[in-house]
Structures are given as structure tokens and as C-alpha cells.
Amino acid sequence: MTNGRMSYISSLLLNKCPRCRKGDLFKNQNPYVLKKVFDMHDHCPVCGQKTELEIGFWYGTGYVSYVIAVLFSLFNLAWYWLIFGISWRDDSVYHWLITNGILLALIMPGLIRWSRTLYLSFFVSYEPARVN
Ligand SMILES: [Zn+2]
After folding, report:
1. 61 C-alpha to center of ligand 1: Å?
2. What digits encode the pLDDT tens for the residues 31-69?
3. Which residues contact 86 (CB under 8 A, 6 or more apart)?
4. How many Å apart are CA 94 and CA 24, to the nearest integer?
5. Spacing, Cα 92 to ligand 1 middle (Å)
6. Transmembrane residues, as ranges (predicted)?
7. Distance from CA of residue 118 to its chain's centroid?
8. 51 C-alpha to center of ligand 1: Å?
9. Weakly modelled stretches of the chain, pLDDT under 70
10. How far, in Å, CA of 123 to CA of 19, rounded?
């Protein structure tokens, strides 16, 4: 993995602006302050990149969060299967469903933000030189 790709992933995880990878997209860093989970800067505080590129831009993130939720569930299925085993003959599949549901609920605020950051990064490319 190249350095550039690493910093792309860490900027996603930290919800940084995709253009400068320095500015924060969200006003409050803690996604678990649920009232403020959608509270974003209109423009990146570091490079001035607009965050909501057009009216209704964030509607597209519904698909992104859906895909992340599915991937996350598959990941949970894999480790749960390896550690506890899953069988249709007992309740284990329900235990997994409950575990997965709880884990999804726990990461949901972060997931909502990551899907916005990821979605924005599809449209805005990294331009470190244009930071002003
Ligand atoms: Zn920026």
C-alpha cells in the first residue's frame, strides 16, 4: 500500500476534507453527540472547499452508508462464524443477528459521517498545493 493511499484512508476515517486532508468536515469531532451528527462546515476551514456541492448532494450518501453497512455485516458474519460458529440448527444465527444489530447501531453515527466523507471524496480530488 502506498503512502498516498494510506493518507487517503486515514483522512476518510478522521472525516477530513478530501481536497486538503487537513480541515475537518464536521464541527463537532464526536459523532456520538447525536444532535450534531450532521453539523458540517459549509466550507473546509483550511482550504475553503465547499462541502455540500449542490442542494440535495447528501441524498446520495444513503447508498454509500447502505454499502458500508452491508460490508460491515459481512465482516461481523466472518469473525462471528470463526469464533462462535453459526448454524441453522440452533439459535446461533439469531445471536449473530442481534450482535450485528447492536454493533451496527453503535457505529451508525460514525458510519453516517464516513459515508458523507467518502461520498464527497468521489467528487473532490486531493490538491495539497491549492491549500491557502
Ligand atoms: Zn480542505
Report:
1. 20
2. 999 999 999 999 999 999 999 999 999 999 999 999 999
3. 77, 80, 92, 93, 96
4. 39
5. 46
6. 63-82, 94-112
7. 6
8. 9
9. 1-3, 129-132
10. 10
pTM of this structure: 0.86
Q: Which three cell numbers stand for residue 35?
A: 444532535
Q: Which residues is 26 bridged to in the sheet?
A: 40
Q: In this predicted structure, what is the pLDDT of residue 131?
A: 47
User: For the chain, which residues make up each domain, given as ranges?
Assistant: 3-130
Q: Which three cell numbers stand for residue 56?
A: 440535495
* In contact, 116 and 40? CB cutoff 8 Å: yes
CA of 103 to the centre of ligand 1 (A): 31
| Secondary structure string (H, E, C) spanning the chain | CCHHHHHHHHHHHCCECCCCCCCECECCCCCCCHHHCCCECCECCCCCCECCCCCCHHHHHHHHHHHHHHHHHHHHHHHHHHHCCCCCCCCHHHHHHHHHHHHHHHHHHHHHHHHHHHHHHHHCCCCHHHCC
C-alpha span between 19 and 112 (Å, rounded): 20
